[in-house]
């Protein structure tokens, strides 16, 4: 039996092509709809413009200062009446207090000066008469002789503690003592790296002899003296 339609006229053979063409048209319409733009109509006319200055300066409003009211006017009477004083009071005369060539000078019979108090303690470098170390009585420079005798005393009585040697202790001990008014030694103060070295330095100072006390204005005073003792291992 022969087919009613011709074979080359069947639509089923080109359905894929038609489908592709239809999809292309639809996508084109959708893209055109999304990209569609409208513009407002331009109206010719005059518009306002905002003017902006190059620099902004603060405009300070003028200050209004209220002035105080003027003082009341003094009313002067039209006529002045002068009254004569028949019994005037004597004027008080004020004598000048400043001295001049006619001022009498009071005679001075005696002048008493206040005595300055002698301080209780004067340091070694400022005291007028330093303490006299035994053996420095006839020295011309008793201050230098005192220092020399002090160094000899330290060298003579110096002994390195054995326990300090075992422990490897060394350093400098700073001492300050005071030659009292009676020539004895007191007021010992120490500062060192270890108590063992401080004890040895105190033993050396305790062997100092009694001295002639220092004097300030011919009065005995306390005289502090400072000396360092160095402990150094060989």
Compact overview of the structure:
The chain has helices at 15-34, 142-157, 162-167, 195-206; strands at residues 171-179, 185-191, 214-216, 219-221, 223-231. The chain has 234 residues and is an alpha+beta fold. It has a domain at 142-231: Fusion Protein Consisting Of Minor Coat Protein, Glycine Rich Linker, Tola, And A His Tag, Chain: A, Domain 2, CATH 3.30.1150.
Structure class: alpha+beta
Poorly predicted ranges (pLDDT <50, ≥5 residues)?
45-52
Task: Tell me what portion of residues adopts beta-strand conformation.
Answer: 5-15%
> Any idea what the CATH architecture of the domain at 142-231 is?
2-Layer Sandwich
Q: Determine the mean pLDDT.
A: 79
Strand order of the largest sheet: 2-1-5
Please bin the fraction of helical residues: 10-25%
Biggest beta-sheet profile: 3 strands, antiparallel
Number of helices: 4
Q: Evaluate the radius of gyration.
A: 60 Å
What is the number of strand segments?
5
Any idea of the CATH topology of the domain at 142-231?
Answer: Fusion Protein Consisting Of Minor Coat Protein, Glycine Rich Linker, Tola, And A His Tag, Chain: A, Domain 2
Helix/strand order, N-terminal first: HHHEEHEEE
Shape type: flat
Task: Report the CATH C-level class of the domain at 142-231.
Answer: Alpha Beta
Question: Distance N terminus to C terminus?
Answer: 139 Å
Domain TonB C-terminal: 145-234
Main location: membrane
Keywords: Cell inner membrane, Cell membrane, Membrane, Protein transport, Transmembrane, Transmembrane helix, Transport
Pfam family, one: TonB_C
């Amino acid at each position: 039996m022969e087919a009613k339609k011709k074979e080359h006229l069947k639509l089923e053979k080109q359905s894929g092509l038609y489908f592709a063409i239809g999809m292309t048209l639809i996508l084109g319409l959708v893209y055109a709809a999304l990209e569609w733009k409208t513009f407002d109509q331009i109206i010719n006319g005059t518009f306002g413009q905002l003017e902006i200055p190059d620099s902004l300066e603060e405009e300070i409003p003028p200050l209004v200062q209220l002035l105080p009211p003027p003082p009341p006017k003094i009313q002067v009477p039209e006529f002045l009446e002068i009254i004569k004083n028949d019994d005037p009071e004597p004027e008080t005369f004020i004598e000048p207090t400043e001295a001049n060539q006619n001022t009498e000078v009071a005679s001075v019979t005696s002048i008493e000066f206040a005595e300055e108090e002698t301080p209780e303690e004067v340091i070694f470098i400022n005291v007028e008469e330093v303490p006299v170390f035994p053996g420095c009585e006839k020295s011309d420079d008793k201050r230098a002789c005192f220092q020399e005798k002090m160094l000899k005393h330290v060298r003579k009585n110096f002994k390195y503690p054995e326990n300090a040697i075992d422990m490897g202790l060394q350093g400098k001990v700073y001492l300050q003592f005071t030659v009292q008014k009676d020539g004895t030694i007191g007021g010992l103060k120490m500062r060192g790296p270890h108590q063992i070295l401080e004890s040895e330095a105190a033993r050396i100072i305790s062997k100092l002899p009694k001295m002639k006390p220092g004097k300030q204005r011919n009065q005995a005073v306390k005289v502090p003296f400072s000396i360092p003792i160095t402990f150094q291992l060989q």
